[in-house]
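Practice record 12: protein with alpha-D-ribofuranose.
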Amino acid sequence: MGRVFIAGSINMDVVATADRHPKVGETVAGKQVHYFPGGKGANQAVAAAKLGAPSTLIGRLGTDAFGQQLRQFLTAQGVDLALVKDTADVHTGTAIITVADADNTIVVVPGANALVSAEDVAAPMLSKGDVAVSQFEIPQPTIGAFFKQARAAGATTILNPAPAMACGPELLELVDIMILNETELGFLTATPLADTDAPARFIEAARRLPTGADKTICVTLGKRGVLALVGGEPSLIAGRAVKAVDTTGAGDCFVGALAAQLANGKSIRDAIEYANAAASICVQRMGAAPSMPTAAEVAALRG
Ligand code: RIB
């Protein structure tokens, strides 16, 4: 069995719920405030650990109360934190999130996440069969160093280019599997895309990503499911009809679940189906990291 290594962000999510999102310049009355563990890296690491893969997170926390709470939570979820450094004089990553009608808006203040360095990712000894995962909430040169090392070891690399931002072809060349939503796909291919577009439009855009035709691309489409290009061959895996209460972290659940399945030796097609089912459980609960399902829950859903 392989292991999953995630180089990524760790945040405290400060979540306000409301009946609707405020417009620019407007104030609306909120209903509740929650402090949920989050951050794309941490969410993906929790998903992988709960879904049965040894999961090591590489990242940074501040030496503040949020940092201590996150360390405690992640340890309890079974995530290996040996490579998470406490960093003085900088705050723990913090996300300010509004949830209304199951959808969210997020402002992330990186804090310690911005200091995750190439030296930080040099420590793990990756091997063939391992899976290396990252996202865009830590510096891109760090991700490049991490993926170079993973490639040299024969590990599989997964990039979740979220939040959307520009990146050079030299990073994309190091990626085996790219997992992104329609906003990120639209940004990286300079194509205006809406979640209501026909699948053919997403396929066309995904083919324009400068990743190479042999790579796997998964476009997560929320309740519509996932559009996958495996070796250039498109397929649409339908979403499951569920009542979503909070979609925060659903994409991270998909990434962590897929990585765990690959580390456990499953085929890419099986891993995508499994991750799609896992994400449908995640959206039925509030919060990001706390809403990741267990392997038993996914097994019960798939029958
Ligand atoms: O993908 C969801 C995550 O994005 C949240 O947990 C928040 O911390 C931001 O990083």
